[in-house]
Amino acid sequence: MLSNSSKYAIKAVLFLALNSSEENKIRVKEIAEPINVPQAYIAKLLQDLSRENIISSLRGPKGGFYLTNENKNNSILNIIVVIDGDKKLKACMLSLDKCNETNPCPLHDMLNNSRDEILKKLKHKTIKDLALSVKLGKSFLPL
Amino acid sequence: MLSNSSKYAIKAVLFLALNSSEENKIRVKEIAEPINVPQAYIAKLLQDLSRENIISSLRGPKGGFYLTNENKNNSILNIIVVIDGDKKLKACMLSLDKCNETNPCPLHDMLNNSRDEILKKLKHKTIKDLALSVKLGKSFLPL
DNA sequence: TCTTAAATATGATTTTTGTCATATATTTTT
DNA sequence: AAAAATATATGACAAAAATCATATTTAAGA
User: Fold this and answer.
1) Which of A2, A82, B36, B47 could disulfide-pair with A6, CB 3.0 to 4.6 Å?
2) How far is Cα of residue A18 from the mean position of the Cα atoms in its chain?
3) Element (H, E) at B58
4) Rounded to whole angstroms, how far apart are CA atoms B74 and B59?
5) Which class in CATH covers the domain with range B4-85+126-135?
6) What was the pLDDT predicted at B2?
7) Residue-level pLDDT at B91
8) Is the dihedral of CA B1, A138, A67, A121 positive or negative?
9) Residue A142: what pLDDT?
């Protein structure tokens, strides 16, 4: 469902949401360790996210990654789509292209309500929402 | 969530449920084409399933794969576990090992109800159930 | 008992995903 | 203007998943 890369990316963005700001940028090496992802790997993912404006970055001394308020309004789904593309998530559970709502395959028929719920949540929950959930003690780290 | 291999396996078993019986065994080459999976690949998966008694088989002329009534009572989850193992399905959405019900990570908190629903359905729906759903016109093929 | 038709076992190859390394571009500080 | 610290771009390498190939075993039928 989610690739490893997506999971890493979500962890990194969440970390940025909780620890960074425009005034407080964070370097790759400072992200990699607390979220338990190899530095070179998370660097590449962060670059992908930055290119697609999911996160912000600045090079040079005093540079680093950070989230603007606008960035924080991105949905979790956006992160996943940037990293994994959108095919995997939208596809039928058996990857049948002839399968759809009016002509559901057996698995589709059985699982799609729950699946659509997940998709809807991923689409509507923002980075900000998740960060808030942590701050309120509804959910927990570490990553 | 489901590997390609699992999807193929489910398709094959469903095909057997609808078309085979102890008296009417089906050869690999007769399965591969209608479910759109390369023959050599589905052969290997069928062997895995056979070894774990999810499906039945007989070698030699007049041999082939088939489902007994007992086979048909297997859950869909059983197929997946044989092919993919059980780690992937049970793992937290962010693959955090410190994440659990009482200490949920943000994604866990957000998605786990739906996820558990899916798991429950996979565990309780049998091959027979799905085949019936097709026969009753509730869901559709082809695979 | 021999031949043939099937599954089975094993492993080789290819593709995709994940990981690592290095050279380049940009920004800040001196 | 030069030096240093950072992200960026690119691509090499490794591991895992998917695919393909081949030799072996088993059962049926002549």
Assistant:
1) A2
2) 14
3) strand B56-58
4) 23
5) mainly alpha
6) 87
7) 80
8) positive
9) 75
Convert the pLDDT of each residue in A52-108 to its tens digit: 999 999 998 999 999 999 999 999 999 999 999 888 888 888 888 888 888 888 988
What stretches of chain B show up as alpha helix (H) in DSSP? 4-19, 28-35, 39-51, 69-72, 76-84, 87-90, 106-124, 127-135
CA distance A107 to chain B (A): 8
Entry pTM = 0.88
B106 touches strand C (CB under 7 A): no
Residue B94 has what pLDDT? Answer: 83
Q: Is B35 in contact with B8 (CB distance < 8 Å)? A: yes
CATH topology of domain A4-86+126-135: Arc Repressor Mutant, subunit A (1.10.10)
Whose tokens are 């009753």? That residue is: B136
Report the largest interatomic distance among the alpha carbons of chain B, rounded to a whole angstrom: 57
Please answer yes or no on whether A108 and B139 come within 8 Å at the CB atom.
yes
- Output DSSP code: residue B64: E
Sequence-ordered list of residues with C-beta below 8 angstroms from that of B120, at least 6 positions apart, any chain: none
- Verify whether the Cβ–Cβ distance B121 to A98 is below 8 Å: no
DSSP at B137: T
- Beta bridge mates, A103: A100
Asked whether the predicted pLDDT for residue B142 surpasses 80, the reply is no
**What distance in Å separates the CA atoms of residue B129 and residue B75, rounded to the nearest whole number?**
9
For B106, the closest of A94, A105, A133 (CB atoms) is: A133
Burial of A35 (0-12, 13-18, 19+ CB in 10 A): buried
What is the percentage of chain A residues whose pLDDT exceeds 70? 100
pLDDT digits (tens, 9 = 90+) for B54-80: 999 999 999 999 999 999 999 999 999
Look at A115 and B118 and tell me if their CB atoms are within 8 Å.
yes
Beta bridge partners of B140: none
